[in-house]
């Protein structure tokens, strides 16, 4: 069953803090947004959002992104766009805060859902993959290393 959280919901999961800022409830489904902060080495496995475009706004620190085979870094004040369907990942290089905006929204409810079930990477990868698919996320590969391609 899919949980749909309210704006303001805060979650700590897998080394990252998440706060839902905007949910499909407030935007007629068009947008969702969440703020995150995490330390060096944290970041999601390689994945794609089949339906959602995604924009990252970096507020603090440094993130290393990988998007469709190309790596680049973004720091405070930068923005990074990932079109729907394009594989991507990122890793925190220097303790960072960022906002992720997705259209259509929904991903902001993934984190409270997996955290509430006590799921952990890599132990529960199969279950996390299945839940991710319900939130328009296909996990396609391993996380990024801080240094590397
Ligand atoms: O979904 C996961 O991470 C994220 C995906 C995004 O498109 C934007 C984000 O800001 C994040 C994030 O983690 O902050 C994800 C999925 C699976 C997993 O094991 C993770 O650690 C993160």
UniProtKB/TrEMBL annotation:
Q: In the Enzyme Commission scheme, what number(s) does this protein have? A: 1.13.11.24
| Superkingdom to which the source organism belongs | Bacteria
Write down the Pfam families for this protein, in alphabetical order: Cupin_2
- GO terms of molecular function: quercetin 2,3-dioxygenase activity
Task: Tell whether RNA-binding is among the UniProt keywords.
Answer: no
> Residue limits of the Cupin type-2 domain?
39-101
Q: Which UniProt keywords apply?
A: Oxidoreductase
Q: PANTHER family under this entry?
A: PUTATIVE (AFU_ORTHOLOGUE AFUA_8G07350)-RELATED
The name of this protein is Quercetin 2,3-dioxygenase
